[in-house]
Amino acid sequence: MSFANILYEAADRIAVITLNRPDKLNALNHDTLVELKEAFSQANGSADVDVIIVTGAGEKAFVAGADIKELSAQDAVKGQRFALFGQDVFSAIEQSAKPVIAAVNGFALGGGCELALSCHIRIAAENAKFGQPEVNLGVIPGYGGTQRLARVVGPGLAAEMILTGDMVDATEAHRIGLANKVVARGEALPSAREMAGKIVAKGQPAVRLALQALRCVPQMGLREGLATEAALFGISCGTDDFKEGTAAFLEKRPPAFTGK
Ligand code: COA
């Protein structure tokens, strides 16, 4: 599939998906969401990709939210479908078998914050601003913001952000656990690439099994989560990369992982 609103490039086992509507601050219209889902499906299905990065085109915005023009045309019935579709796309990202890093290079508002929240890791440039400003428009977050923001920063801070619509800057986002780290302006994507490169160098079965265990956290209680971890640990012990990784350590040499 060729994309109109997205740039897709893959090299060095890293796919970079760039939301590319900079004149609209990369706002997510329906067509862009369709393309975003397809791009993730392509990256997940590619044998040449181990890590996926998502970012926004231009220096100003990661994603400034759902497209407000399209949003304004919703009614009570269409609005629910509108939300369910965005949730479906973001849940597919969250459930990605390969790690997803958000390189937040500017505004991450509304659907942009929700997109970042559906990624496994968030790196913020110092000019990034996160927020759920939907109440300013008389609407509530619909692409998972109420649920995922509360899980990431806790219910009190999520309530403050969602009920006031106030943005938080990159430093505050880092302080409250919304951003993994803050880097200089223009450095979010290079920093995400650097982190992705570290992940690419590991045994990929272990990376994916670890991610699978982490993805269970919001869905499971501790007892069930621990049982899942043990089962996945057992699977990782059955891989060639486990044999290679442990043998390499004991033989004092770097591992040569094969991804099997
Ligand atoms: N949907 C559609 N278009 C959007 C958009 C959105 N969510 N956010 C920005 N744009 C468009 C603007 O309409 C403008 O288009 P135009 O040049 O054709 O008029 C362009 O992007 C640039 O935005 P502008 O508002 O001029 O930039 P700014 O630097 O003055 O302000 C923001 C930046 C992010 C503070 C401001 O654009 C904003 O508040 N956007 C909406 C954020 C929001 O409420 N998101 C949640 C939606 S549910």
Please summarize what this structure is.
With 260 residues, this protein is an alpha/beta fold.
Biggest sheet strand line-up: 1-2-3-5-7-10
User: Share of helix among residues?
Assistant: 40-55%
Residue windows where pLDDT falls under 50 for at least 5 positions: none
Q: Total number of β-strand segments?
A: 10
Q: What is the fold-level CATH name, i.e. the topology of the largest domain?
A: 2-enoyl-CoA Hydratase, Chain A, domain 1
| SSE string | EEHEEHHEEHEEHHEHEHHHH
Please characterize this protein's 3D structure.
There is one protein chain. This protein has 260 residues and is of the alpha/beta class. It folds into 2 domains: 6-200, 2-enoyl-CoA Hydratase, Chain A, domain 1, CATH 3.90.226.10; 204-250, Lyase 2-enoyl-coa Hydratase, Chain  A, domain 2, CATH 1.10.12. It has 11 helices and 10 strands. The strands form 2 sheets. The protein has a 6-stranded mixed β-sheet with strand order 1-2-3-5-7-10, with helices on both faces. A 4-stranded mixed β-sheet has the order 4-6-8-9. Helix 5 packs across helix 6 (155-164). The longest helix is centred in the N-terminal third of the chain and has 19 residues, at 76-94. The chain starts with 5 loop residues before the first strand and ends in a 10-residue tail after the last helix. The mean pLDDT is 98. It binds coenzyme A (COA). The site of coenzyme A (COA) has 16 residues, from helix 2 and strand 6. Coenzyme A is lined by residues 24-25, 27, 64-69, 71, 107, 109-110, 133-134, 137.
